Amino acid sequence: MKLKYLYGIIIVCLSLTSTSIVKAQKHNNKTAILYGKLLNFGATVELEDFSELQYIVPKSHNAVIELKEDSSFHVEIPIEKPAYFRLGRNKLYLSPGDRLDVVIDKGNPTGVKIKGKGSEANFYLRNAPFPKGGSYLDAGTNLKETPTETLEFLMEEAKKMQTSLDKIKGISKDFRMLESARIRADLVKSIFGVKGYAGIKSQFRKKGEGFIQEYIDAFEIIAKPAKDSLLKDFVDPKFLQIEVYRDILKLLPLETFSNKKYVRGIQDWENAVDLATKKIKPQNDKNILPSFRAEIASIQNPVYKDALNKLLDEKLKFGNGDLAKDLVFNKTDGSTTTLSSLKGKVIYIDIWATWCGPCLGEMPYLETLKEKYKSNENVAIVSLSIDDKAEPWLKNLEKRNPGGIQWHIDRAKLSDYEVAAIPRYILIDKDFKVAEMMAPRASDPKIEENLNRLLAK
Fold first, then answer.
1. What is the C-alpha separation between 163 and 348, in angstroms, rounded?
2. 3-class SS at 74?
3. How far apart are CA 448 and CA 235, in angstroms?
4. pLDDT by residue (tens digit) across 340-372?
5. Cis peptide bond upstream of 423, omega within 30
């Protein structure tokens, strides 16, 4: 199929996103019910808010699903209006009154089985691409031999998704509009991602830097009309509900967009996210935290403002200087122990997982730190895995044979400690008080200074 023809089809299909979204129909029911089986997850699973509030709300906002021994579950989610959630690698769109019977395998997100009220939208979402992998590029595996073939492929993938969406019956106008926006944003993400992925694709690297640069330059030329058209008039705060739209915000020409109300709405969200992620979450000094109330008051959107106040309230409840919240850990022999069993010692906790590259990169530094303090009975250095299952953790330990304390915990049990990104480090003093919720990494020379300071008290 000719590129020009394909391009025309895509733009026609995606032009729907420039119209206003119809307000969701009101429901009397204020809950959504999920039940079924979650395979290859841990003992508990976090149902993460995947809307535009993802980075603003506190971790305690997310529902924690307890699994039975046969991996079955039943949970009722309070919900005021339709919203996106994430369960493992699967996206869900839940509305008040939904009742979904699901079987989700964490290792096979496209193989999800869903039935019940609300199933049409959620079954469609099983094939939504993964933005962190470059959307339709699939981490670069879908790059073709020529730039023209790559652009044609990306256009065709977007067309297929739009055709699939158009065929679905029983979904709301709101969901249909949002998903058209997702297709358009995924296409943007893919086109702009070619430059980065071309440089790491093994087949291209074998041909040399000259080939890669020529490929990128040629693609930039032929893709420019598509880029310009896709980004034009694609500014609407409602689309912030889509994670890939949030990913491409920096590409949107906000300064040239005529609807200043929409621009202010997006800028307000950006200000709220910056306040949450760059100021409130990293700050654990309770004397400083209240000062952020004034900045929260400057946020215009009442939903964002409420979420930020709740986040700040959570931070004020528990942080540096407070008694550590006790935790129950699994040991390598299958028995359990507690954090409080280490009371009286200075405790340094390294939170990691076998799938976390940066975590594994810190391990040699952690082993060096253990060696320096191995004869000091007043120091406990804990390697704490948050792998979903114990098997990968145990296999990793067998392979590396590290020293010291090796424990495992379900990630959901760490909600009080606001564990999001890893590696993450926590420092607790001899009085069992939190010295640093966000302690330095093992590779940071400051950690020895901090350990020694606490030991000297």
1. 53
2. strand
3. 48
4. 999 999 999 999 999 898 999 999 999 999 999
5. yes
